[in-house]
Amino acid sequence: MEGRNLKKYIKLLLIIQIYMIMLFSAGFLRIPPAHAFFEEQVKYGFEHRWLPMLVDTAPEKRFQAMQAFLTYPEWGLPVLRNSIKTPESDNHSWQIAMLIGMLGDASDIPLLLTRWRQLDKHERSEVWLGAMQRLYWKNYVPSEIIPKLKSLSVKYSKNVAEGDKDSNKSDLLYEIVNPAPVSRLIRVTLQFWQTRIQE
Questions:
Q1: Residue-level pLDDT at 76
Q2: For position 124, what pLDDT does the model report?
Q3: Predicted local confidence at residue 100, as pLDDT
């Protein structure tokens, strides 16, 4: 009797040890947790369900798709970016541009501008341009931080005589430094005044 009980306890102890080894080794083997599977399912849903619904003819479906992208931007924005990056894709709809304008950042502006220029009919141009403007204004730098003129030089090339007038050809070289933390668009304008010198 005691021998049977002893064998029973040894078997039970051995089974517990095997389960403990399996339990601890699973942590070292890095078995993916359940949320990784969930994330893959969500990404698949965004690519194959919600993205096609953005261009659906039914307004209810379009609204549901937009609501999904706005609710989960961390999963939806990469799908939107990838859909517009693919040149052979026909997914260059204004709804995608609008959502990228709402969720994206300034790095999305060049891609939106490129795709907008490639559109044949410029379908809903105001939405594409509005999305780019919204992304630009998200990173707006206050006017207190102004660009600095670092260097300016004038290089005279040659004197040209045209009829009874003499003119000088010159090159104006300049370097502007932007102290702001984000890039900005700068338009340079020059104004020259001609004065007569009395001899």
A1: 92
A2: 79
A3: 93
For the record, the structure tokens of 62 come out as 């379009």
Q: Sign of dihedral through CA atoms 138, 139, 142, 147? A: negative
Give, in order, the Cα–Cα distances in Å from 138 to each of 44, 97, 141: 30, 16, 9
Residue corresponding to tokens 């003119």 = 167
What is d(CA 15, CA 27) in angstroms, rounded to the nearest whole number? 19
Long-range contacts: 186-189, Cβ < 8 Å, 24+? 186/147
| CA pair distance 80, 70, nearest whole angstrom | 11
Q: Fill in the DSSP letter of residue 2.
A: H
Helix (H, G, I), strand (E, B) or coil at 30: coil
Q: Which residues contact 103 (CB under 8 A, 6 or more apart)?
A: 69, 70, 73, 76, 77, 80
Tokens of 15: 């089974």
The pTM of the full predicted model, rounded to 2 decimals, is: 0.54
CA distance 101 to 190: 34
Query: Reduced to 3 states, what is the DSSP secondary structure of residue 157?
Result: strand
Q: How far is CA 111 from CA 51, 108, 161, in A?
A: 18, 6, 48
Per-residue model confidence (pLDDT) at position 93: 82
10-residue mean pLDDT series, the chain (199 residues): 72 74 58 70 88 89 91 91 77 85 89 83 80 83 76 79 70 84 73 58
